[in-house]
Task: inverse folding
């Protein structure tokens, strides 16, 4: 025999998403959101951020071009 009950499940919901550099809002601008760069990394042994640290950054296309554009290979 099986018995079921209704349970509430918590879920994560994105409520804010902005450029880590200039603060541009991606939530309300679909086109900027499509062009956003998101990076994540886990710090390894001897990382300058700390061993096992979780590193996240979201960058709008304008800030990415300004800060890192000269290092990019664009085809």
Result:
């Amino acid at each position: 025999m099986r018995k079921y009950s209704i349970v509430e499940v918590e879920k994560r919901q994105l409520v804010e998403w902005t450029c880590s550099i200039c603060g541009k809002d991606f939530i309300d601008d679909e086109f900027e959101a499509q062009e956003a760069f998101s990076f994540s990394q886990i710090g390894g042994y001897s990382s300058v951020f700390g061993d096992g640290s979780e590193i996240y950054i979201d960058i709008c296309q304008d800030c990415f071009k300004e800060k890192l554009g000269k290092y990019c290979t664009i085809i």
Remarks:
- The chain has two helices and two strands.
